Amino acid sequence: MMRALWSASSGMLAQQLNIDVISHNLSNVNTSGFKKSRLEFQDLLYETIRGATPTAGGGYTPSALMVGHGVRPAASLRIFSPGNLQPTQNPLDVAIEGDGFFVVELPTGEQAYTRDGSFKLNGDGDLVTTDGYLVMPGINIPPGAKEIAIASDGTITYELGGESIAGDQITLAQFPNPAGLTAIGRNLFLANEAAGPVEDGLIPGEDCGSLAAGYIELSNVQVVEEMVNMITAQRAYEINAKAITAADEMLGVANNLRR
Fold it and tell me: What are the domain boundaries of the chain?
């Protein structure tokens, strides 16, 4: 069987997965704090037909004769470039200008990390995410508080009983390799060994990004860029399909030599 059939089929499978990743990016173009992914590829094992052989002059041939066996997806790299900031007129919406993650507590007690700062207050006055997860280190605003404001360093101030009060402070977390975080959906990430040790309890504006209240960080997906990537992947898929067709026709010619 011709190697071209298997090499081209691996190319079709790889581009199919590439389209899946691009489609996921486009579907989250309006998701707050979403970070796009890029699929990376590697070539497969090579078969050496002839190595670098000695020549009559005592040297070696400048190159070997090798044939590759196609391509495989190697990784889906998440790109943490900043998204645009959109004003919302909501004092509880917070965007991170720079590096860092908000820390939230899952119902299991495990900590998760997010760039989505569309926060709300629950019935107890706790600052929570859209899904009701507590924002760490535990932010509480008492009932009846007015003129709520979040400073760039995360300090929350409000008026209560005609008095201005400085309340709790939002802190951030950082990782040496945020691209290694495990995405679990709902705009959340989990820490793992690939991301490196977490630095939490960081004061915004000190060794991490500052906060912008009344803003939401939009997705960093660029629609035009993703459409160009989709066209490129689609054409690569078509070219690999044509390679399979050409190999099939060549096999057909070889099979019909004795007719």
Answer: 3-78+221-255, 85-217
